[in-house]
Amino acid sequence: MQERNLALELVRVTEAASIACARSMGQGNPTRSDQLAVNAMRAAFDALHISGTVVIGEGERDEAPMLFIGEEVGRWADGDRKMDIALDPLEGTNLCAYGRPGALSVIAMAPHGCFLNAPDIYMNKVAAGPDSRGIIDITVGPQENLRRLAQARGLEVEDLTAIVLDRPRHEEIIAEIRSVGARIRLIEDGDVDAAIATCKPDSGIDILFGIGGAPEGVLAAAAMQCMGGDIQGQLMFYKDEERKRARKIMGDDADIEAVLTRDDLAHGDILFAATGVTAGGMLEGVRFFADGCRTHSLVMRSKSGTVRTIEAVHNFEQKPHYTSEGFHQKMKSVGK
Ligand code: VTB
């Protein structure tokens, strides 16, 4: 199957995961929310015409029963293209479990070798929209990045809004942003949604700063490749063991301290799909009604630069549906 069609197939997988875990929104059980998304995503992958290998996933084989790094997904039939997969069935697990904005289900897919094999550790990031390409630089700090972006846009720094994860580790970054008078949007979780929002002109978000997960950095870079935005990252090491993990997964010769550009994180012909679980910077959440629901997704391809938003109405009476047990029960009962 041609890649251009595959992007539209991919969105069915993120839709399935979103619908499944959206049932658990606000129930206060992150593990269950994640499990619902994982199970539904795993089942939906089986229908996809690819020979896929998870390179960014739920963790390593011994710690994740499904969608672990190295797991093969898709049909793996003759003629199915070999693809590497970066995924997060529920990015912002706590956002879903506690009913907060910005949770989504996300998959990026590209030919083998296009995604950085990122260890599951922290990464410092800066990301902004298309007019920041070649301007933002993680080594110069928030103040200078804000100054450069304001200048490129013919604005004052005070007109810009930075988005930052609300964490004690960001005290210094937040103080720096405040000192130049830029506005700040603090979020509880979900810096993939935040990075995407920087590329949406009317989102009210201009630039992302701060330390989040490295796997999320790869997913954000895949989205930025499709939307024309820019991102840079740098792995953060707090413990020796994290360096060891980075070397193990990235190879002994890799410069694990290096500034990682958008292309280092994700390059090539990337297909990207994300479906909102709870309403966020770009996407609506799942809305249920009698015998169905409505989902809002983003489907993109880096090669063509096409960005589609897909509003889908799912009819639970007529469609096969995913539950944690498989395809047997009505989708309506997912999460109950
Ligand atoms: C980061 C961020 C994610 O969780 O991984 C964060 O990239 C975890 O940070 O988007 P803490 O360890 O400080 O909680 C998310 O916000 C959600 O998965």
Sheet-strand content, in percent, reads: 25-35%
- Strand count, sense and closure of the main sheet? 8 strands, mixed
CATH domain topology of the largest domain? Fructose-1,6-Bisphosphatase, Chain A, domain 1
CATH class type of the largest domain? Alpha Beta
Supply the CATH superfamily name of the largest domain.
Fructose-1,6-Bisphosphatase, subunit A, domain 1
| Count of discrete alpha- or pi-helical segments spanning 4 or more residues | 9
Order of helices and strands: HHEEEHEEHEHEHEHEHHEEEE
Task: Quote the average pLDDT.
Answer: 93
Structural class: alpha+beta
**Unreliable sequence segments:** 323-336
Number of domains: 2
Span from first to last CA? 36 Å
In the CATH hierarchy, the architecture of the largest domain is: 2-Layer Sandwich
Radius of gyration, in Å, reads: 19 Å
Q: What overall form do the CA principal axes indicate?
A: globular
| Strand element count | 13
Helix content: 25-40%
Which molecules other than protein and nucleic acid are bound?
7-O-phosphono-alpha-L-galacto-hept-2-ulopyranose
Tell me what the structure shows:
The chain has 336 residues and is an alpha+beta fold. It folds into two domains: 3-114 and 269-333, Fructose-1,6-Bisphosphatase, subunit A, domain 1 (Fructose-1,6-Bisphosphatase, Chain A, domain 1, 2-Layer Sandwich); 122-265, D-Maltodextrin-Binding Protein, domain 2 (3-Layer(aba) Sandwich). It has nine helices and 13 strands. The chain has helices spanning 3-22, 30-45, 93-97, 141-153, 171-179, 191-197, 214-227, 240-250, 262-265; strands at 50-56, 72-73, 81-91, 104-110, 122-128, 161-165, 183-187, 207-213, 230-236, 271-276, 287-289, 292-301, 307-315. Helix 1 (3-22) runs antiparallel to helix 2 (30-45), helix 4 (141-153) crosses helix 5 (171-179) and helix 6 (191-197) runs parallel beside helix 7 (214-227). It starts with a helix and ends in a 21-residue tail after the last strand. Mean pLDDT is 93; it is low at 323-336. 7-O-phosphono-alpha-L-galacto-hept-2-ulopyranose is lined by residues 91-92, 165, 167, 189-192, 212-213, 216.
